[in-house]
């Protein structure tokens, strides 16, 4: 265990969480799709069922392949406990519903993921839970609203799609002062670039569908924390409400995570190159990437992240019309709603992350109609730039 603790991130990503689950001398964690686990010894069955002995009873509660995935994320996020979910949204909703009660107050930011924002605007108000939306990145406003008292401070950094950054440590301190749980969606940063638990967050969650899995072929979610009783409470909510991760998904994501560091580093390199290139393109009005010195939150990004990640966005002149001509010309990009995959993935914010909003709402959030989100893949960076170059040229001829 100490050997694992002392190991560097890439080594942990390959080895952590697997040893306890290997069988028959196999070097890889098996997929165990069994719905139930059988016992000949009635007393042992009872001991496991009441939680006095380690083991598995029923797949909605626990499963060995799923647990191996949880163990790996736990190590990579420097947590003490982890519990997993069928999707990232299940991780987010189950975490919120575990702790919130009628009359409670949540302090959050305006730019959370679309689904998360829907929980805040559509579902929590029905339970008489008040949600306060602060300007993303505005620590003074978050501190002020938190000081009025709240149950949860909910953050996401960097955000979708304009990659804004919020100071996790400052918000965590504010949350601590009023006894609030500080929850951070770390999907965009990944544990390669940011460990919110070390900055004072209580709970960190991921859409494992994105960078953790990395291959856009499995859905999953996970929540980790230092306080095991918090994770136990979330696990209990999930085991009863049933948003359990599938063992096949756990296997695929576990396998994907072995290359997490390699992928994320290449994606960040490519994002930096592409962002720098896009700044020189005439048709591009704005480039949003936290690694750029003129990004409004560059300093805090530098302080709390060890890399700036693979996500960026840019706004083109001519709005939707330019987007319509440009995106189909890209040879090495999927035009799709996901992100964090090995393939470069592009999509307009109006079609992907903010499809639920009206153009006016998007404008109010600082999202131009011509905003394109790019999740850089692991392709060669020069090829990505060449591809965008030819796409801009071809789009211009057509327009
Ligand atoms: C995709 C995403 C989610 C939701 O995850 P699903 O696995 O699609 O349910 C939550 N937060 C962020 C930042 C995301 O990108």
TrEMBL record:
Its EC number is 4.4.1.2. The keyword Electron transport does not apply. The lineage of its organism: Bacteria, Bacillati, Bacillota, Bacilli, Bacillales. This is homocysteine desulfhydrase. It catalyses: L-homocysteine + H2O = 2-oxobutanoate + hydrogen sulfide + NH4(+) + H(+); L-methionine + H2O = methanethiol + 2-oxobutanoate + NH4(+). GO terms for molecular function: homocysteine desulfhydrase activity; methionine gamma-lyase activity; pyridoxal phosphate binding; transferase activity. The keyword Transferase applies. Its cofactor is pyridoxal 5'-phosphate. SUPFAM superfamilies: PLP-dependent transferases (SSF53383).
